[in-house]
Amino acid sequence: MGFLTDTVARVRRDLERSPLPEGTLLLHARSASPPRDLEAALRRPGLSVIAEVKRSSPSAGEIADVDPAAQAASYAEGGAAAVSVLTEPRHFGGSLADLRSVRARVALPVLRKDFVIHPSQVIQSRAEGADAVLLIAAALTVSELEELRCVAEELGMAALVEAHAEEDLDRAVASGAGIVGVNARDLETLEVDLERGLRLAVAVPPDRVLVLESGIRSAEDARRAEAAGAHAVLVGEALMRAADPAAAVRKLVGP
Question: Where are the alpha helices (DSSP H) in 79-141?
Answer without folding.
Answer: 89-92, 96-105, 119-127
